[in-house]
Amino acid sequence: MNPTHCCICRRRLEDFASKEQGFGRTCGERYLSAQGTPDVEAAVGLIVAADWPLEQIHALVASRNDVTALTQAVTYWASCNYEDKNAVIACAKVLYACGRTHLATKLVADRVRVHVTCHKVTVMVHTTGGHSNEFAIDAKRLPSSDRTMASNGQTRYWVFDLVRKDQVLVLLGHWFPDEPFLMQEEGLSDLRVLPRTPRVDVEQILDPGFVGKQVGLEDAGGTYVVLRNTFHGTFTKELKATIPDDKRRWDVARKAWHIDRGFLPAVKNLVLRHFGVVL
Ligand SMILES: [Zn+2]
Q1: Cα 27 to ligand 1 centroid, rounded to whole Å
Q2: Is 42 within 8 Å of 97 (Cβ atoms)?
Q3: Interval between CA 219 and ligand 1 midpoint (Å)
Q4: What is the full per-residue pLDDT of the chain (279 aa) written as tens digits?
Q5: Which of 100, 183, 215, 250 could form a Cys-Cys staple with 229, CB 3.0–4.6 A?
Q6: How far is the CA of 85 from the centre of ligand 1 (A)?
Q7: Which residues of 201-210 are buried (b: 16+ CB within 10 A; e: fewer)?
Q8: How far is the CA of 28 from the centre of ligand 1 (A)?
């Protein structure tokens, strides 16, 4: 397999040198600078886990001792697959681990439908295609004081107050489930996957009474303790995984968990990790 197009700008590659590399000279100059510290073990882990032909995986892993050769091989492979979004995103993850953060971010930014950028007091969200309209309808249910639309010329994007970040991610996870998205935080780019969020969780976080992450424990001294917390998807998931079915009960009327006292240490540990609160 030989690359015919630049993996970055997707223009046809003309000269031999560009075809050898998998990108054109202009793109190379613009995006090939290494920015991060290479973590070759992480890169190899990603290659091994990728959904690529076995001989390709072997060929890439074979250049693990030379990070420059490895990044070249991965960029070449990205160019061979320049039209295959998932393959290029998988390559970008490897390039990111190899320290080529600039190139990786560019490859991903052009191919994902969801971009999230966190600033000091705001979260900017840009979505294209898919369920962007449905996302917008839900987003408009957030208090109008905490959201607005902005534009940088061609692109329109959402600006949310930073306190809405978790809610916005829940909404995105509902409308773009299991999708890779570009997260930029404190100047760092990261490729993450949106967790699939059920509608019932979306309704909970869009409830006007929702007040950010809060958690509290009532201990009346009986066989169980009562835990109240505002919606937190991963917390709930881990709580359910940690505490057996017959040791917990969701009290619909009080919107609280009843949990067997024997699991109190486990609950405290989960709350500390997810809410940063010592109960
Ligand atoms: Zn190019």
Answers
A1: 4
A2: yes
A3: 62
A4: 788 999 999 999 988 888 888 889 899 888 887 788 899 999 999 999 999 999 999 999 999 999 999 999 999 999 999 999 889 999 999 999 999 988 998 898 888 999 999 998 999 999 999 999 999 999 999 989 999 999 988 889 999 998 888 889 999 999 999 888 888 887 777 778 888 888 888 888 888 766 666 788 888 788 999 998 877 777 888 999 999 999 999 888 878 899 999 999 999 988 887 776 777
A5: 215
A6: 16
A7: bbebbbeeeb
A8: 7
**Amino acid of residue 214:** Q
The owner of tokens 């979505």 is 127
Structure tokens that stand for 248 in this block: 């917990």
